[in-house]
């Protein structure tokens, strides 16, 4: 059973979450997995997947970003928080908690949607051994699925910022969208451009006087862990273009982008959220498990794989493989 925990962001903000911890030692350092949620999705949503990783040998940590779920403290109207805070302060605090409370254990990270973006904002992201992401991107609207782009633009880039400005936060739960969302997070999402550093912390400077946004983009080079980024053909947010846009920031890592069509697995749909539903325990979760165990995939896997080598492999941009559906 998971145990409630309280950890601190780097600025002292209290973050609530849960841990799945083995009571007996393994014969070698047991890995610990840290799960980063999607925007305004409670960490409870990932509990079944955390159970699965725990059953297969990991200690596991989940947590909510400030203003969400277990980490909501009072009115959101008074909370000054954006996506950068979620990465620089909250995810960084979770990384430090993992390093302190699970000493000597390799740290793996699972990131869903924006949870794959905030990884690159953490100062100690170089601690990470392996990364698995699902539908990870930073919501540039032109990357949305063409057939749904207009409606998504109106919802997330017109209506959401109007609500944020008018109310001081977005009452998304009342609207049936997601959890209530801090104003700064909503505005980061709403004004996102092709390069995230052109959209966030406008005018902010680092202590040495340089633009803060440029320093944020450079921080992604701290990440050297191999990355498997999974996307599905029917994900209106995590399209191929959206996933590749984010992956290009992690150029110090070897990156694999696996694009799956639901029909490759005999499924009608997967979308942006369903990967973490328990009904996919035997269908999709083994690919994440294999990656986190070995930094590789089974010999037969569904979909199409694009390899983006680390920047040290000069002269090679990317290599694409078309794979037959899994038959075993």
Could you give the order of the helices and strands? EEEHEHEHEHEHEHHEHEHEE
> How many separate domains?
1
Radius of gyration: 19 Å
Mean pLDDT across the residues is 93
> Under the CATH scheme, which architecture would be assigned?
3-Layer(aba) Sandwich
The CATH topology annotation reads as Rossmann fold
Q: Helices and strands: which structural class?
A: alpha/beta
| Strand order within the widest beta sheet | 1-2-4-3-5-6-9-10-11-12
CA distance, first residue to last residue? 33 Å
Biggest sheet overview: 10 strands, mixed
**What is the name of the CATH superfamily?**
Alpha/Beta hydrolase fold, catalytic domain
Structural summary, described in words:
The protein is α/β, with parallel strands linked by helices and 328 residues long. The chain has one domain (3-139, 211-322): 3-Layer(aba) Sandwich (Rossmann fold), CATH 3.40.50. It has 9 helices and 12 strands. It has helices at residues 47-55, 83-101, 114-117, 149-167, 172-175, 183-190, 212-219, 240-247, 285-294; strands spanning 3-8, 14-20, 32-36, 59-63, 107-112, 128-134, 169-170, 181-182, 227-232, 255-260, 304-308, 319-322. The strands form 2 sheets. It has a 10-stranded mixed β-sheet with strand order 1-2-4-3-5-6-9-10-11-12, with helices on both faces. Strands 7-8 form a two-stranded antiparallel ribbon. Helix 4 (149-167) packs antiparallel against helix 6 (183-190). The protein is globular. It starts with a strand and ends in a 6-residue tail after the last strand. The model is unreliable at 313-328 (pLDDT under 50).
